Amino acid sequence: MPQGHETTILVVDDDEGHTELVRRNLRRIGVANSIVTIDNGQSALDYVLQQGHYEGRDASDHLLVLLDIKMPGVLDGVDVLRRIKEDPVTKSIPVIMLTTTDDPREIKRCYDLGCNVYITKPVDSMAFLEAIQRLGLFLSVIRIPPQPEKAP
Amino acid sequence: MYFLAARLGLVLAFEKTNASPVWPPSGIAFGATLLLGTRVWPGVAIGALLANVVVFAGNRAGSAAAIAAASSFVAIGNTIEAVSGALLGRWLFGANRPFESARGVFKLVLVALLMCLTSATIGPTTICLAGLAPWAAYRTIWFTWWLGDVAGVLVLTPLLAALWERPWRSSGPLAPRALEAAALLVILGLVGPGVFFGWLDGGLIRRESYLLIPILLWAVFRFGRFVAAAAVVLAAGIAIWGTVNGSGPFSGGTLNESLLLLQAYVCVLSMMTMSLWGVLSERLQSEEKLRSLNETLETRVRERTAEVARANDDLRTTNVALEKRTIELAQRSEEVEAFVYSVSHDLRAPLVNTQGFSRELDRSLKSLNDLLRDVTLPPAVRSELTDFLEHDFPTSIRFIVAGTTKSERLINALLLLSRSGREELHPEVLDADALVRAALDALQGAITHKQAQVTVGPLPEGRGDATAIGRVFSNLLGNALHYLRPGVPGRIEIGGERRAQGAEYWVRDNGSGLSAAAQERLFRHFQRFHPKMAEGEGMGLAIVKRLVERHGGRVWAESEEGKGSTFHFTLPGDEHDGSTSDAAGT
Lengths: 152, 586
What we know:
The structure holds two protein chains of two kinds. Chain A is of the alpha/beta class. Helix content of chain A is 39%, strand content 16%. Chain A has a five-stranded parallel β-sheet. The chains are: A alpha/beta, B alpha+beta. At the A-B interface, helix 1 and helix 5 of A face helix 9 of B.
């Protein structure tokens, strides 16, 4: 992670088990950043847009989003992705889709909507852990822009 | 009444000379017996008797006694003639109307000729015996008598028979034909006398008698039986009148010659007219029969067509229902497969957690172990702790992991199976050889390990989805490898052949084979015959079956326990291109 600024990693996934495994394995591979987990689309959107429940939160650091697609509630991952990327204020936030679907049409759709990376969660647990660890290594070499100032 | 008619006829005879050219009474008598039955013979007899008496008396040919006797015998002859004619007629043409067919007419002529023989024999003989005529003239008398009777029959009987049928009741529109009939009559009235009263004179070659023939033909063709018969009578009458009075083409020459010529002429006219009418009548009857046959045929055809149309409609309705069912079935099938797919897909996610956290437990356990190593504990506590940390905990965790691993594999297999029914197939021409080699490459490890010998024969081209058929071969080859008997050098053969439509392939092994009971359940889900089978958990053959059937082919196995097995499958030619689901699949 770039020096000077901390990056917060936002993990959006309704499966607590998954998010816990992600947290532990990222830690193991050396990712020391702050990790925030949210389990539904609407709250995730509120967080990113600094609205609703998360109005006025501390947005001094950079933000990276790990986004699952299948979530309960009105908004699923794709909707969240679209809203983030449509808003000129937030569209520079990197979004990594981390989901079980491997349907090529779905993948294309997410890229069309502007996701930065698409990762298919392996269903095999060993492979899953490996994938998370590789993701962690990847995160350690990429650069993240600062979070946007909340528009007045 | 009958004998009155006979009398009438005989009165006519009275007009003529002794040996009349035409003996109408014969015709009338024959007509009577034919139409009314032989019971009229008394009338005929009496009539003939009286007529003859009158004739002979008029001629003063001999003594009264002779006349009486002769008359009686002649009368008897005439009666026999009429009766025999009727009997002969009934025998030859029975109840059929002799005038309505050509054959009938000929039979009638035959009857006439035969029946007049009787009278012609009895008559002249009697006369000569009675001294009323010289024996020297017997032959001529006989001949003229005979011909006269014949002529009488031929001329008058047709007319009587025609009258009997009451033709005026059934005639069609009268007006135009009446005009034509009148014209006919006029012309006949002109030509007839013209010929026979000497108005038309053909000079040296007297052939004017032929002029009447076209008129009679006209009568037959246009007006039918009654008019034709009447015309014949009329023509005959004119001819006789003319000739007897010394004019016309038959007169001149001796009386006998004229007589014979006239008789022959009249007979010819009548026979010609009658036979023509017979032929025409036959033709009309055939036409009538044809027409009615046509009509019934048309009705029958119409009925049959209606039946066929109805059957067709039924068939079509059934077809439509069948198609609907097939579509429903296919949809049902699709729904089931989609369900299986989504469920197995969703079932995998929790498994990741179970597995993942089992490993976390493991790790935690190790960390705990490490931590406690450096702690001092009383030996009893230490040994109990060791038990927990090195036996109970790890064992529990191991079972959890094993359980979830198995679930994971089952779900994966289910997913594979449903995907084999749902994936889109992209059929193309397959290089079966390449597919087999690829499958063998992937299994190379197992092949070497089992020291199996694999031979690949020439394989025909097939048509199907390359991935799917590749999977089919992999499955079959994997199975073959698994079933090889330890200790027996394994041999696996792969072969194929062109079939009428498409290709057939087989994989043969000399492994442990399958029992008959096992063969029955071969292609079902979750069937495992070999205890150590790890991959696919008994799904392999079910997947093979599904894929092959989606291509429109068949898969089957031949096996003998202890000897080996051969698995066959066919790939038909062009028409069967798979789609996301076929109704043929299970």
